[in-house]
Amino acid sequence: PKDGALLRAILTAFSTSEVCVIAEGGGSGAFARAYASEPALFGAHHVLLNPVVGAVPEEVRANMEDAGADVTMFVADGWGKSDTPFSLANCAVWLEWCYTCPGQAEMVTLVPPRGAIVTGGIKPMRPEDFLCGHKVADHAKSESPTGDFFLLTPSPACVQE
Predict the structure, then answer these.
(1) pLDDT tier at 32 (50, 70, 90 boundaries)?
(2) Which residue has the higher pLDDT, 52 or 119?
(3) Distance (Å, rounded) from C-alpha 65 to C-alpha 104?
(4) Nearest to 113 by CA among 58, 153, 148
(5) Which helix H or strand E contains 111, and what residues bound it?
(6) Mean of the pLDDT values across residues 15-38?
(7) Nearest by Cα to 29 from 71, 62, 64, 1
């Protein structure tokens, strides 16, 4: 995929450096591919939400170790009552990477407020309202062609962490 190259090009065009990434789903793959090839563009702390990727490039670990960087992954079967159910099995590649890089990665499991757990055996590591969301109408369809989008709202404890 060329998404990592696109992300690097955008960051370079804006002359940015030390960017901290918050990525959801497949966006975590673009981050991993960009970080693997040009870690100097990125800051030290990154957040991934239900990250999905085919493979995490080997260079990510070495680059993070060299830079003292880290990733916190928040994973949940969904973010609220109106969210589409999600299975944590989709995060398997990142979850495995997390366990092999304890100095660079932390995984936090959350249970969605709707209480419907798709993935069996998951126990929450934070309160139910730690990070949750709801659909927001987008009548102009400027953010979403469907006319709504999902807005995550962190609790004060989440913001502090």
Answers:
(1) very high
(2) 52
(3) 7
(4) 153
(5) none
(6) 87
(7) 1
Q: Are strands 70-76 and 105-110 parallel, antiparallel or unpaired?
A: parallel
For the chain, percent helix, then strand, then coil, each to nearest 5? Answer: 35, 25, 45
H runs (alpha helix) in the chain: 3-13, 27-37, 58-67, 92-100, 156-160
* Residue the block writes with tokens 């990727």: 53
Q: How far apart are CA 120 and CA 116, in angstroms?
A: 10
Total number of residues shown for the chain? 161
Q: Name residue 130's amino acid.
A: F
C-alpha gyration radius of the chain: 16
Residue bearing tokens 């960009």: 34
Contact 110, 126 (CB under 8 A): yes
Mapped onto helix, strand or coil, the DSSP state of residue 108 is: strand
Q: DSSP 3-state assignment of 24?
A: strand
